[in-house]
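[User] At your convenience, examine this fold.
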Amino acid sequence: MTACPPNRRKFNFWTLFPLFWLMFLAYPIIGFFDRSHSPAEWLLFWGVLVGFLAVYARVFFFPGAGQGWALAGWVYSLLAYFVLFPVAGGGATAFLIYGGSIIGYQGRVSLALWLAVFNVMVMALPLWNGSYTLEDLAWLGPNMVFTMVAAYANYSSYRRSVADGLLVQVQLEKEKLAADAERERIARDLHDILGHTLSVIVLKSELASKLAERDPRRAAQEIREVEQISREALQEVRSAVRGYQGSGLGAELARAKVALDAAGVKLNVSALPALPPQTEASAALLLREAVTNIVRHARAREVWISLAPTPDGHRLTIRDDGVGGLNAEGSGLTGMRERLRAIGGTLERRGEGGTTLSAQFPAAHGAAAAGGLVRA
């Protein structure tokens, strides 16, 4: 008798399959009706039968019944056999088969098989006192075999259902972790895309406010640039929503120059080699975060940016001559460390004589492989 998995909740054929095995109750019922009985025996027989049905349903039809119910069902089936054998004859042997089936529905195979063997031995006891007829002996052997098979089959079914339940839990946990990671990625992207741009807008707006009276033409020019930067920011947000990552390292360098010029910081850039798309997107976002921090906090006069090939990929270095130090990193740099780690890169930060950020980007094939591991 193979039971339905205990963690199933949708009704289907396999959910109701244990009802099929209740047909074996026909044997004790037929055995009972073969003889005449007193009212007390009638009450005993049907009371025990109803109790058995309740235990059977608890084990096979209620998710999470637990291993204790399997043992309780085996004990009840054994008692039902001994109680009903005098009134139902050999037909009561069906309860020993049910006991072997029920005890299999737990996670200890040794317990299931040994108790099923015990049921088989009990099944053979009437052989010694001649209680079985020749007709009974014809089906005793198959019943013994079937009791052992049912015990092991239900044990296997139970273990499979437990494994399926654990698999569902793991899948749900993976989905939750993926959702959390996606929320973190969106938060990083919003910070990377908008943090720098909004800082430039604030800086230029303050400059325009100061120039409004003494140099209206320059102030108007600053306001026009604020408008242009705002439009670009809006376009970047739309691109991010569509799944794009920035607009390339060259475009980010141009925006960095605008921001640094507005803050009175000189920009020195070495020749930049071409980068793979995924590496370029991460490099552009790192450059944006670094320039934002320089404008906000560094009080620097000059910035040096270089990108050089290395045996393992490319190294982007951003150095300024500002106040430096190694204060606690904000969410921007922390997010960039996670972004680089996701593609197999690293980020180093030094605070002597200003601030130096050194990012190692893996080769194109390495980045693609690391990205695949993160997405899996």
User: Anything to note?
Assistant: The longest helix spans residues 134-214.
